[in-house]
Amino acid sequence: MSDLNDLYQEVILDHNRRPRNFHALADASHTAEGYNPLCGDRLTLYLKLADGRIEDVSFEGAGCAISKASASMMTDALKGRSVAEADALFSRFHRMVTTPPDEAVEDLGKLSSLAGVREFPVRVKCASLAWHTLKAAMANEKRTSTE
Amino acid sequence: MKVTAPLVDLQWVERVRADFPILQRTVHGRPLVYLDNAATTQKPQAVLDAMTSYYTTINANVHRGVHELSERATEAYEASRERVRRFVNAASTREIIFTRNATEGINLVASSFARPRLQPGDEILISAIEHHSNIVPWQLVCEASGGVLRVAPVDDEGELAAEAFAALMTPRTKLVAVTHMSNALGTIPPVLDIIRMAHERGIAVLIDASQAAYHMPIDVRALDCDFLVATGHKLYGPTGIGVLYGKEAHLEAMPPFMGGGDMIASVSFERSTWNVLPYKFEAGTPHIAGAIVLGAALDYIDSIGFDAIGAHERDLLEYGTAMLDGIGGVRIIGRARRKASILSFVMDGVHPHDIGTIVDREGVAIRTGHHCAQPVMERFGIAATARASLAMYNTREEIDTLGVALKRVREVFS
User: Fold this and answer.
1) Closest by Cβ to B353, choosing from A1, A13, A64
2) Furthest-apart CA pair in chain B: how many Å?
3) Which of A22, B57, B203, B380 is least surrounded by CB atoms within 10 angstroms?
């Protein structure tokens, strides 16, 4: 049962119950939609970029606890960061959730609470959805969708 | 919790379980509780033995060689076709086409029956509770020919009314395609009435029996359906083999679906002619082993009998419904008066995907998601459900284990 507790840590459950930055962003400069066809998780990511920096970021959508918590924590972690920093964080997060469960991973602070998905291969996509949507949003100048 | 006594004795289900080797295994250290039967069923030893026996004794290509093995393989392949004919009570083996699965059967009818008949503005009528496989082929055919797809509605209980169907049948309706049992809700629509009403208006009907075929007897002559599809892997048989039944007059008039070997009478560069039924629709080397082993699976089902299977599964459905109703915050989706073997549900504050992961750790296999029926999910205003689906080898104890696992879900999300 310990791996279940690894997956559903208190911090994740808390972000699932009370997702941060969970709203639309009227003055967003970039948006993208993420969709996980396996489970039907859907989220819309809103970015307000100015001078290569993330001034504001938010999301909306419906999904499992892992995808919702991951999106919530991601938006918290991104505010105020430069696009380059966000790109780097994407890579570090991606490395963390795709490293085999018996190997050590870099400490990413709160985001590390999602390292538990490594024990649940089909759930890695849930944790990654928000991040892939972020990538798609940053790659496009205008409103767009990954689908 | 009020439940009736089991209608069948416990030894019966224990005997059935003993026929399925996989049920002995554990998952995450717990005994496997397999409740994902609507996705695919497990295979009895008789089916596994038939597979081995085919490959160790008579493996050869069919309808070709004069040698002993080819003759034996052909004999077994055709004997299995006869077995399927009896299973669905078709008039002739010429009406039984082996396909890869139910999806291929539907695509065959869409391509060879619907497409040539469909003029711009003509309609195909389906229901709101179809599997994607009974939606998308019709969309493709409508797109290609300017046809229109109409959808008969489902009510809040998951009920499909024959009258709602009839109301959408117009002089332009060329085909009705409807499920015999919903994979997402368990609803058993009034197919007999729907077929009768369609025929009164001269409309052909395809029945998707993928789910129904392993829960209840299928009789294509009693139904009087024009086409019916089923898939082997839900009939306790192998994947990759399915069945299309079609009325001979229809099949005879239809052009081939795929071209290739075995489906021809003669080939020249100027012109080829088609083989007789059913071979006209079986291009290329078929899934010989699959077809033969499907015959063994149907023998197995017959040896148990749908009377016993139905009684046992009804008891489990009632027991499972009471169990889920007894858990606060759990809501069953689909409460049709006539339904079978499907317990689709949602839980307040917990996404089905999380339910699936947590109960899996208790050894319980359920399906979570949209069940290839996204329009159904949309109709009920949800993104997904958790679905426990029952088969002959499930037990009340397994339902109890699901109940315990769901309480564990509550604990995690408390």
Assistant:
1) A64
2) 73
3) B57
Looking at residue A145, its pLDDT comes to 39
Q: Which whole number is the average pLDDT over B123-127? A: 98
Contact B207, B223 (CB under 8 A): yes
Residues in chain B closer than 8 A to A41 (CB atoms): 353, 383
So where are chain A's domains?
A: 2-139
- In this prediction, the answer to ipTM > 0.90 reads no
Alpha-carbon dihedral B178, B36, B398, A125, rounded to 10 degrees: -130
Nearest to B246 by CA among B391, B97, B413, B349: B97
Task: Confirm if B294 and B241 have CB atoms less than 8 A apart.
Answer: yes
Full DSSP string of A72-106: HHHHHHHTT-BHHHHHHHHHHHHHHHHS-TTS---
Q: Rounded to whole angstroms, how far apart are CA atoms B117 and B111?
A: 10
Please check whether residue B257 is in contact with residue B230, taking contact to mean a CB–CB distance below 8 angstroms: no
Tokens of B338: 């006539």
- Residue B93 CA to chain centroid, in angstroms? 20
Q: Picking from A101-105, B41-45, B157-161, which range would have the lowest pLDDT averaged per residue?
A: A101-105
- Which residue spans of chain B are classified as CATH 3.40.640.10? 48-302
Domain B10-39+306-412 fold is Aspartate Aminotransferase, domain 1 (3.90.1150)
Identify the pLDDT of residue B356: 96
B383–A40: do the CB atoms touch at under 8 Å?
yes
B-chain residues within 8 Å CB-CB of A68? 351
Fold of A2-139: Sufe protein. Chain: A (3.90.1010)
| Class of the CATH domain delimited by B48-302 | alpha beta
Distance, in Å, from the CA atom of B366 to the CA atom of B360, rounded to the nearest integer, reads 8
Per-residue pLDDT for B391 more than 50? Answer: yes
Identify whether B225 is a catalytic site residue.
no
pTM: 0.93
Residue range(s) in chain B whose domain bears CATH number 3.90.1150.10: 10-39+306-412
